[in-house]
């Protein structure tokens, strides 16, 4: 199975452990980090979503004009624009980028964050709206004839979009760790995304999504897992660096994007699962380290894989063996880590998969 690597870019440097040194929108930094990911062999980069931060579609358009092949996974929350408008927005962006766009659908796990943008639906209502929204997007991208819709959240008549994606549709990436998320994602997602949990828990979540897909007679989506790799030339130096990063988390005034309002009792199930794993042990499996999730309140993908590039590559392959074919990796030092991943980590994973594929061909 081929493997894809996703990074993360922003318009400003900094992270939970490193203070920002640039303006919120720094065009030069945005260009530099996008090109660093392209040069490092990443397939795509994620552009996150926050009620307070720059619009991801516009950042993607800017970065795409300064790169050649890098894909852009734009985080998007249903509910704040009509799906008919979103269909045209992202199809237009896809055309201008030559088919380099995918969507990361964020249903929303934080009520307070949703309300900042004016959304007062409950969690289950949001998932129902997301399912309806995604059905409309798919139809808008593929229908050559006008169609009407009357559902629980959207109603329109005789809509047809003249602008279509470069390919038949735009890939949908989807996340969530609740039963409602599994149901919606199994129906609509091309790739289902998880945060970095221990192997047994990821295997459990994959089984849940596959079970939901089988229930509706749909082929299960692909699977992605997100980590924060911390590399070192030796195991000892990698762990020294990890402890140094941990010591800075909390002392840095992190962007609101990275914060949980209630760090000890987050509302979303994904953060709850990370904190539950961290409460059991700081270290899991080959290289998974959950102390960073505990320190940051697990506001996003915050668990690390710690070790030499060889150790971390093998740890990623442990998840690959469970059926994971996409890895979102971003560092606590975003720019420098992306360069290091491209120099040592990504090639090691791809080389091992190529070796396995060649061995299978010989055996066949």
Produce the secondary structure layout.
Layout: E1 4-8, H1 27-39, E2 44-47, H2 56-64, E3 71-76, H3 83-96, E4 101-105, H4 111-116, H5 123-142, E5 147-150, E6 155-159, E7 172-175, H6 179-188, E8 191-195, H7 199-215, E9 222-227, E10 230-231, H8 235-248, H9 269-280, E11 283-284, E12 288-289, H10 291-296, E13 304-307, H11 309-320, E14 326-329, H12 334-363
Parallel strand pairs: 1-2, 1-14, 2-3, 3-4, 4-7, 7-8, 8-9, 9-14, 10-13
Antiparallel strand pairs: 5-6, 11-12, 12-13
Secondary-structure element order, as H and E?
A: EHEHEHEHHEEEHEHEEHHEEHEHEH
Q: Could you describe the largest sheet, including whether it forms a barrel?
A: 8 strands, parallel, barrel
The structural domain count equals 1
Please report which band the strand proportion falls in: under 5%, 5-15%, 15-25%, 25-35%, 35-45% or over 45%: 15-25%
**Mean pLDDT across all amino acids:** 93
Overall helicity? 40-55%
Radius of gyration: 20 Å
Would you identify the CATH architecture?
Alpha-Beta Barrel
Explain what this protein looks like in three dimensions.
With 364 residues, this protein is α/β, with parallel strands linked by helices. The protein has a single domain (4-363), classed as Alpha-Beta Barrel (TIM Barrel), CATH 3.20.20.30. The chain is 45% helix and 16% strand. The chain has twelve helices and 14 strands. It has an eight-stranded parallel β-barrel, surrounded by seven helices. Helix 1 runs parallel beside helix 12 (334-363) and helix 5 runs parallel beside helix 6 (179-188). The longest helix is centred in the C-terminal third of the chain and has 30 residues, at 334-363. The chain is globular. The protein starts with a strand and ends with a helix. 46% of the residues are buried.
């Amino acid at each position: 199975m081929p493997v894809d690597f996703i990074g993360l870019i922003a318009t400003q440097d900094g992270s939970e452990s490193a203070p920002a040194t640039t303006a919120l929108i720094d065009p030069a930094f945005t260009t530099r980090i996008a090109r660093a990911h392209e040069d490092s062999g990443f397939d795509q980069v994620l552009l996150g979503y926050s009620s307070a931060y720059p619009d991801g579609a516009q950042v993607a358009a800017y970065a795409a004009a300064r790169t050649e092949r890098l894909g852009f996974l734009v985080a998007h929350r249903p509910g704040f624009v009509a799906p008919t408008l979103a269909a045209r927005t992202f199809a237009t962006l896809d055309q201008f980028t030559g088919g380099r766009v995918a969507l990361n659908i964020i249903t929303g796990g934080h009520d307070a964050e949703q309300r900042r943008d004016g959304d007062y639906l409950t969690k289950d209502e949001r998932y129902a709206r997301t399912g309806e929204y995604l059905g409309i997007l798919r139809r808008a991208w593929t229908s050559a004839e006008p169609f009407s819709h009357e559902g629980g959240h959207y109603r329109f008549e005789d809509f047809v979009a003249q602008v279509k994606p470069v390919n038949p549709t735009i890939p949908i990436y989807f996340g969530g760790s609740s039963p409602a998320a599994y149901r919606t994602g199994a129906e609509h997602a091309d790739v289902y995304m998880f945060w970095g949990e221990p192997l047994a828990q990821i295997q459990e979540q994959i089984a849940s999504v596959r079970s939901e897909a089988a229930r509706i007679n749909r082929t299960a989506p692909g699977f992605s897992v997100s980590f924060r790799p911390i590399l070192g030339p030796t195991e000892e130096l990698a762990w020294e660096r990890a402890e140094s990063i941990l010591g800075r988390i909390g002392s840095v005034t992190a962007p609101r994007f990275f914060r949980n309002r209630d760090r000890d009792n987050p509302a979303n199930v994904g953060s709850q699962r990370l904190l539950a794993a961290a409460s059991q042990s700081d270290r899991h499996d080959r290289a998974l380290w959950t102390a960073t999730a505990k320190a940051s309140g697990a506001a996003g993908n915050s668990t690390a894989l710690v070790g030499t590039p060889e150790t971390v590559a093998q740890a990623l392959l442990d998840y690959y063996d469970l059926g994971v074919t996409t890895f979102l990796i971003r560092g606590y030092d975003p720019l420098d880590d992306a360069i290091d991943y491209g120099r040592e980590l990504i090639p090691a994973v791809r080389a091992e998969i190529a070796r396995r594929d060649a061995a299978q061909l010989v055996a066949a």
